[in-house]
TrEMBL record:
Keywords: Disulfide bond, Glycoprotein, Hormone, Secreted, Signal. The gene is LOC115569039. This is Somatolactin alpha. It comes from Sparus aurata (Gilthead sea bream). Pfam families: Hormone_1. SUPFAM superfamilies: 4-helical cytokines. Its main location: secreted. One of its GO terms (biological process) is animal organ development. The keyword Glycoprotein applies. InterPro entries: 4_helix_cytokine-like_core, Somatotropin/Prolactin, Somatotropin_CS. Belongs to the somatotropin/prolactin family. Residues 1-22 form the signal peptide. Coiled coil: none annotated. It is found in: Secreted.
Length: 231
C-alpha cells in the first residue's frame, strides 16, 4: 500500500510540477553586475505580494518534498523514532518568536528581520542537502528537482526580503551570525541510516520554518492593510 501511495503521489507531482514552475512570478532582484537594482523599481505593495507568493510556493514544495522523502526512505518505525528522539532543528537557537502571542506583539521591523534570519540560515543547508541526496540509490528525479528548485527560490526570496527591508525600514542588509557548524562537522563515514535521518530532519525542519516565513509575511501584509484585525 505504501508503494501504491508513493506512485500515486509521484503521478500527481509530475502533473502539478510544471504548473508550479510557471505560476510563480519572478523575484530575481539582481542585475548583471550583481546589484539589487531590479526590485527597487517595484512598488512596496507589489514587492510584498511577490515575496509572499514565493514563500507560499516554497512551503508547498517543501511539504511535497518531505512527504516524498518519507514515502521513499522512512519506514513507519523510523518516523516514530524521529518524533520520540526530538532531533533539534538547526534554527532552534535563533531569537525568533514561536508562539502566536509573541508573534503578534513583535514589530514590523522584527517580523522582516525574523524572516530574513530564517531564509539566510537555510541557504547553505539546502545546498548541502542536494549533495547528500546523490548518495541514495534510486532517488527519484522529482525529489532532486524539488530540492534544487526550493534552494534557488530561497535565494530569490532572500533578495526580495532584503529590498523590502530597505524600502519599508530604510535599512541595509542584515546577515545572521548563526553558525551551522554542528550540521556540517565531519563525522567520518556515518552509516546510511544516519544520512537518512539527518536529511529527514533537515526536510522536516525546513518545512516548519518555511511555514513560519509564510505566516510572518502574511501578518506583515495584514498589518499594512488593517492594523487592528490581524490574528
Amino acid at each position: 500500500m505504501r508503494m501504491i501511495r508513493a506512485i500515486k503521489q509521484g503521478q500527481w507531482a509530475v502533473l502539478l510540477w510544471p504548473y508550479l514552475l510557471t505560476a510563480s512570478i519572478p523575484l530575481d532582484c539582481r542585475d548583471e553586475q550583481g546589484g539589487l537594482s531590479h526590485c527597487p523599481s517595484i512598488s512596496q505593495e507589489k514587492l510584498l505580494d511577490r515575496v509572499i507568493q514565493h514563500a507560499e510556493l516554497i512551503y508547498r514544495v517543501s511539504e511535497e518534498s518531505c512527504s516524498l522523502f518519507e514515502e521513499m526512505f522512512i519506514p513507519f518505525p523510523l518516523q516514530l523514532q524521529r518524533n520520540q528522539a526530538g532531533y533539534p532543528c538547526i534554527t532552534k537557537a535563533l531569537p525568533i518568536p514561536s508562539s502566536k502571542s509573541e508573534i503578534q506583539q513583535i514589530s514590523d521591523k522584527w517580523l522582516l528581520h525574523s524572516v530574513l534570519m530564517l531564509v539566510q540560515s537555510w541557504i547553505e543547508p539546502l545546498v548541502y542537502l542536494q549533495t547528500t541526496l546523490n548518495r541514495y540509490d534510486g532517488v527519484p528525479d522529482m525529489l532532486l528537482n524539488k530540492t534544487k528548485w526550493v534552494s534557488e527560490k530561497l535565494m530569490s526570496l532572500e533578495q526580495g526580503v532584503v529590498v523590502l527591508i530597505k524600502k519599508m525600514l530604510d535599512e541595509e542588509m542584515m546577515t545572521t551570525t548563526y553558525s551551522e557548524q554542528g550540521l556540517f562537522q565531519d563525522d567520518g563515514q556515518p552509516e546510511m541510516l544516519e544520512y537518512v535521518m539527518r536529511d529527514y530532519t533537515l526536510l522536516s525542519c525546513f518545512k516548519k520554518d518555511a511555514h513560519k516565513m509564510e505566516i510572518l509575511l502574511k501578518l506583515l501584509k495584514c498589518r499594512q492593510n488593517d492594523m487592528h484585525s490581524c490574528a
